[in-house]
């Protein structure tokens, strides 16, 4: 007997077979022996009668039934904050995906953090640079640069911040409902749970040394916390201007801002299919080790076939539904599905595209451990190569090649 799930599976695969039958052997299914659902002719070939978690399986139709063009085996390029354990404290929570959790991600660690209104991520610093995008609410950030110049700012949804390695900082949620954001460290082995905390240093320094260091009696430190605070509930900060006045005792300010209004910036590329906004060291000067692109793809559109020659791409899916195929030598090709809260990863120079397979806008961020954003468009390359040469490679006539986009559009709309 077929279960309801089996019937849905067979129906979906049958539709794919019908659409592809005409040229299955030569078009969209080049490999021998033939693979993919289009070639699954045997009775019950598409059924999965064994134990399964339908709730998980239904989220990955491209893994259940990959396109017939997928081939070989590649490292898993999907992870998610949705199943990452949360460390919860009074004032907020955090969860992370490091290389220990996501083997392919050796250049970036991702952290998802929530702070309540007044919730404080305590004063601290890292051995890696910290880049972040605000995905909800508002947050006040403070930082001191390497020349002792303080900076205080409020960041809102769609804004970025960047703190170079070793520069001390803090984060605090603002009203009315605090904030949520995603942090990227420029080191796949970094951890938000292993940072240099001001309370830890105080608690593990002899009181007489603290007294000498700060020029006050040792009794001043009699009630300091003996355990770190990490995230804790605090009072809502006051006026931003007042905080700025309070910290500017020497009147010195950093030459470049530590924040960038990415969502409000002008698109680098824009079409009917969506847009791409870029922040790197060219326009976000302080961000010397991390570049990023915020990408919006309209329903049915596709992030064009391309690759990045200078860095791996760490992706965070903010909203919508996506399907991404990554191409490597071999040949190897793998297709996976992504939803809000998921993480993708593409190694440097590997070809890929991202389709919007939902009925709402797809939005995701691509993060690169590099000072500048670089991208090579497949169509841009082929339309700037002698047409006769391209025609001989692909058996496509030159008149057709002349119709291909020659401006690296970034996003192609639904045809």
Polypeptide structure, described:
The chain is 16% helix and 33% strand. The model is unreliable at 1-25 (pLDDT under 50). It folds into three domains: 4-64, no CATH class; 85-259, Jelly Rolls; 267-412, Jelly Rolls. It starts with a helix and ends with a strand. β19 (322-328) and β20 form a beta hairpin. It has nine helices and 25 strands. It has helices at residues 4-20, 54-57, 61-64, 198-203, 207-214, 240-247, 378-383, 387-394, 398-401, and strands at residues 78-80, 87-89, 92-97, 109-115, 119-125, 130-144, 150-156, 160-163, 169-173, 179-185, 196-197, 231-233, 259-260, 269-271, 274-279, 291-297, 302-307, 313-319, 322-328, 332-338, 342-346, 351-356, 362-368, 376-377, 411-412. The protein is of the alpha+beta class and 415 residues long.
Main sheet overview: 12 strands, antiparallel
CATH fold description of the largest domain: Jelly Rolls
Strand content: 25-35%
CATH superfamily of the largest domain: Jelly Rolls
SS class: alpha+beta
Shape: elongated
Distance between the termini: 40 Å
- Overall mean pLDDT stands at 93
Number of domains: 3
Query: Which blocks of ≥5 consecutive residues have pLDDT under 50?
Result: 1-25
Architecture (CATH level 2) name of the largest domain:
Sandwich
Tell me the total number of β-strands. 25
Radius of gyration: 25 Å
Percentage of helical residues? 10-25%
Counted by DSSP, the helix tally is 9
Question: Which CATH class of the largest domain applies here?
Answer: Mainly Beta
